[in-house]
Amino acid sequence: MPDAHEEPDGSPATAPSATTAPALRQGAGATTEAHADERRFRVYTAVVLTVGLLAAAAVSTWLPFDGSVHLWWIGPLLALAFLGAEQLGVNVDVRSGISWTISFTEIPLVIGFFVAPFEVVLAAHVVAGVTTLLARKVTGRVLYNAGAFLIEVTSAFAVAGLVSQAIGGPDGMPWVAALAGTLTAPLASTLLAMAAVRVLRRRMRVGTVLRLAGRILVVGFVNASVGLTGYLVISKTPEAWPIVLAVSLGLAALYWAYSDLLREQRDMEALSDVSLMVARSGQQAAARPAGKAGELGEEIDVGEWSTIAERVKDQLAAARVVLRLRLEPDEPMRAVVGGQQLPAAYVRPDDPLLRLPGAHVRHFRITEANPEVRAALLDRGAQEALVVPLRSANQLLGVIEAHDRLSRWRGFGKYDVQLLGTMASHLATALDNRRLLATLRHDAYHDPLTGLLNRPGFRQVAREPLHEREECVALRVDLDVFSTVSDALGYAWADRMVMAAGRRLRDALGPDIPVARLEGASFAALLVDCTAEGAHEIAERLREQLSVPYPVDRLTVEANAMVGYASTTVEESGPIRDVDGLLQRADVAVRATRGGEEVRGYAPSMGQIFLRRFQMVTQFRQALEDGQVSVHYQPKVSLPGKHVLGVEALVRWQHPEFGKVDPDEFVPAVEAAGLVGALTSFVLEKALDRVRRWLDEGLRISVAVNLSVRNLADADFPAKVADALERFGVPAELLTFELTESGVMADPQRALPILRELHSLGIVLAVDDFGTGYSSLAYLRQLPVDQVKIDKSFVLGMGTDLGDLAVVRSIVELGHSLGLTVVAEGVEEDVARDQLEAMGCDVAQGYLISRPLSEERLEAWLQARTARSPGHKAETVLTLLT
């Protein structure tokens, strides 16, 4: 008969059926509540057994039914039939938390109504049930189950008798009465289980009970109908028994096929769920802010791992699952429990269950265990356990333990062992991936040389205290001998000095203060709840300690440290809450340390650099009109044929007061002030005019213009570009827009539609500084681009750094695999050009070919260094002279 059980409402301990209560009782035996549960269940067992005996005596007196057959062997035969029906039971995991055991005891029970008196059927059922429990070594449930067996059969015959009397049928048992009585037995068993849930103070929703009762009635009706039909057919037509047997076997095969299908589906869902849960917990840990010392390392979240343990427990229908995890190599394992509470300090120093030399699941039963294993199981309050290690590359990441399967008849079987083994493999892989992500995250926020935070890590750590604390101070420390040591002794010696300076800085400030290496020999620290006076004292102490000579191997390197600091309250307009702004002010203070004064605090009077930028921004429009701003061009050539394919338009500003202003200084200021649209329009107009004049001369040379993120936020920008192309009569394919990954991904929802519209006009799009921005491959596939430009930092390092050489080769291969043209910037030597040509790079640009030139000098360069030859469409192709 069906035996359905479900875990209600995520309660910490579960009684899927009353027969599993002893396992729950033992699991919490170390607590007062568990002892109370044990006492209550003992009383409940005595009540069930007493009621069963009294009810059996009453029914035996009231309904001493005489069956149609009175043979001495019918009792043993029914007992064998009940025993076989229990052995052929099918366990179905309906969904998470529900284990539904389908047995076929309704078949011998419904036949027993016709062939044997009540006492014989009762004895046969009790003997078969108790024998099954003893054979499976489920000794702790015998008394309760004996009482349950008595009540099941007694209630079945009582209902059958009442129905028989109500319908007033002929002598003997009517089939309707037999069917009704048979359906009563599993319902009685279910009611007993629900009562046990209440006795143990567990919760089960009404909807859950109704669903289980419905399933029990359906399966019980099918089984009883098969048994009843088979008996009636054989009693009328004895030679029809092979057909009845075939139908019965077909029904059993259908149950087994259905259970296997559901089990496989549930196992796959469980494997997927566990892997996703671990992955999500890793992502959530990565999203959490850093600790007090700025460490962004891994942390264990008990709530997340408890959910994972509960999911594994539900799938195995276990009373308890223990995840013992080691998330860091040198830390002890931590236990996370799903299900019943664990006894305190249950793991012995040399626990035999945790001696796991291999990677396979081990199955321990208390009835088959040696004294040492038996003691370990008793410490856990468990009758049986499945234990499997979590291993990755021969490294023990943890252990999974599953205790006591919640089933009326059986413990853990081969399917449970297979599932736990597969789940352990998935969980080990997920844990390994989580650790890898934690390592990548740590590397992303930490300087690999010193182990201190890097600039992004410092920004992440400083964000919260800057917004929550009243006063914070940013320190910036610069060692002024870094470049000298690098030039004189090489970068290896300079790196050693930087590492030593980082250690001194950490030792001086302690572990609780965030410290970062910004670049070179520049460091930063954040002092929380510190006044400007206190910051000055700390800065003086740091300068003294960092200026002590550095013993590097057999040399002693003299050093001088300069320290600048800026407080969040330094501005009269209000506190500064921006990390970069605070660091910028501290940097200004460092630059102001001159004339023997190596420690300076930022003052608003030091902000002349900001005044200069303000002047440039306010004067920029006038500078465009006065001709102070011009466009220079840097040629680009094809590597195989050395043809001049195009030029890149670069803006220059000759300021009447400041002289030549570097684009890296004024372009960001112009962009921040919202004037980049005017700058882009100016460069675009000049570039298209130059291309138009080349076309008039029969030259087909393209021009590349750099775009800003502000251009990609302008919905009217594509229309403006189309209008400019039409006015100058320049084909769209001779115009290239260069953009950075970071510029696009600052607001991809707004930028991508603009780029697609520009691309639809026929304009060539190129990704500039490729390899230095976001996850390049992931975003490159989303962008409607035609070219990638390798950042010049990689090209410049190809001759001396094998890593840069490998990066360049990878970008060339990646670009070609995506059907893109690859352009290399920063080509300054013949060997770099030859290497790029051997790799198959398409276009080169750099000082080896030409520096950026004014329009007049570019014309002279073209005349002096190129030869003209007829090209396509009656246009001229320029080829570099060797």
From TrEMBL:
* Composition bias, Low complexity: 11-23
Q: Which Pfam families does the record cross-reference, listed alphabetically?
A: EAL, GAF, GGDEF
**What's in the keyword line of the UniProt record?**
Membrane, Transmembrane, Transmembrane helix
Listed InterPro entries: Cyclic-di-GMP_PDE-like, EAL_dom, EAL_sf, GAF, GAF-like_dom_sf, GGDEF_dom, Nucleotide_cyclase, Rev_trsase/Diguanyl_cyclase
Q: Where is this region: Disordered?
A: 1-33
Its domain of life?
Bacteria
Spell out where the chain crosses the membrane: 43-63, 70-90, 110-135, 142-163, 175-200, 212-234
Query: Protein name, please?
Result: Diguanylate phosphodiesterase
